[in-house]
Each structure stands twice: as C-alpha cells, then as structure tokens.
C-alpha cells in the first residue's frame, strides 16, 4: 500500500546570502519569515519562509560552493541528475511574466510545451524557479480539479 501524503510540505535551497534571499523572495513572491535558527556546530543559518501552501527552507552555509553555471540554465540543468526547480502555479503565465519583468527579474527561458506555458527565472543565488500557468486540461493542472 502506498504512503498517503498531504501534499508538498517544504522545498529547501542553499544560498550565498540568507538576508538577501529573504528580501528577494519577499519582494518577488510575498514570502515572509516564520522561523529562524542555526544548525549547532555547523555554522549554518536557516530561515523558513511561508509561501502559498508550503514553506521554503533556506540555508546559508559559510564556505559553501557556488551553484554551478550549468544548473542556472533550464535545459542544461536537465543534464545533471537531482532536483531541478520549484514551480509556482499562476492563473495567467503571460501576465506573471510581465509582472516579473516589471520587478526587474530576468527571464531565463519561456517554455511552451504540450499546451503548457511556463517561465523560468533565477532567484538571487541562481536557483531555477518555474512560473507555471495553471490553465487547461494538461496533466500538471489536474491536481487542481481532483484528477488522478
């Protein structure tokens, strides 16, 4: 029997500057800090940011390696195994793209595949984020209507 899950709880990222990242996610997506802590003996600061329906766990580890350049390019990132990006659903992808551009956010790529519309951006550390239009009857949107 499969394990029953409630949905997404949190997504975790590692960044170069915790305070800059908190400000970026607050300004761009309206996230806010709900908790701050440190990992004892590891020189790692942690912040939990509340987003719409989930938490973003942000780590700042002193002396951490920079995000490799290939991980900042959507299709090249697919050539490295592991987690790829987080995706935020929006009702209108083109309107969200215009809002992001007005906020000074660089668009890394627009993806129009199989009747979907997505916009890839990078956060202040270079982590990929997809802004995904939740419209139509494509597999990525079926969870909104209870489809399996």
Radius of gyration from the alpha-carbon trace, in angstroms = 16 Å
Number of domains: 2
Round the mean pLDDT to the nearest integer and report it.
91
CATH classification, class level of the largest domain: Alpha Beta
Which fold does the CATH topology of the largest domain refer to? Answer: 2,3-Dihydroxybiphenyl 1,2-Dioxygenase, domain 1
- Residue share in β-strands: 25-35%
The secondary structure category is alpha/beta
CATH superfamily membership of the largest domain, which one? 2,3-Dihydroxybiphenyl 1,2-Dioxygenase, domain 1
Uncertain segments of ≥5 residues (pLDDT<50)?
A: none
**What's the helix count?**
3
Query: What is the strand arrangement across the widest sheet?
Result: 1-4-3-2
CATH architecture of the largest domain: Roll
Number of strands: 8
Order of helices and strands: EHEEEHEHEEE
Which terms would index this structure?
single chain; 148 residues; alpha/beta; 2,3-Dihydroxybiphenyl 1,2-Dioxygenase, domain 1; 2 domains; 4-stranded mixed β-sheet; 18% helix; globular; MMCE/EMCE_epimerase; VOC family protein; metal-binding
Describe the protein in words.
Keywords: Metal-binding. InterPro entries: Glyas_Bleomycin-R_OHBP_Dase, Glyas_Fos-R_dOase_dom, MMCE/EMCE_epimerase, VOC_core. With 148 residues, the chain is α/β, with parallel strands linked by helices. The protein folds into two domains: 65 residues, 2,3-Dihydroxybiphenyl 1,2-Dioxygenase, domain 1; 83 residues, Roll (2,3-Dihydroxybiphenyl 1,2-Dioxygenase, domain 1), CATH 3.10.180.10. The chain is 18% helix and 33% strand. It is built from three helices and eight strands. The strands form two sheets. It has a four-stranded mixed β-sheet, covered by helices on one side. Strand 3 and strand 4 form a beta hairpin. The longest helix is centred in the first third of the chain and has 12 residues. It is globular. The two termini are 17 Å apart. The mean pLDDT is 91.
């Amino acid at each position: 029997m499969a394990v029953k899950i409630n949905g997404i709880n949190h997504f975790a990222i590692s960044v170069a500057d915790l305070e800059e990242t908190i400000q970026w996610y607050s300004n761009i997506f309206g996230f806010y800090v709900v908790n701050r802590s440190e990992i004892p003996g590891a020189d790692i600061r942690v912040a939990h940011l509340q987003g719409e329906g989930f938490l973003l766990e942000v780590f700042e580890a002193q002396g951490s390696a920079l995000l490799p350049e290939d991980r900042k390019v959507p299709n090249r990132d697919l050539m490295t195994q592991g987690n790829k990006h987080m995706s935020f659903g929006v009702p209108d992808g083109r309107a969200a793209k215009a809002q992001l551009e007005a906020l000074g956010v660089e668009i890394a790529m627009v993806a129009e595949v199989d009747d979907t519309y997505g916009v890839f951006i990078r956060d202040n550390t270079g982590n990929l984020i997809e802004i995904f239009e939740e419209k139509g009857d494509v597999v990525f949107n079926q969870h909104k209507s209870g489809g399996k």
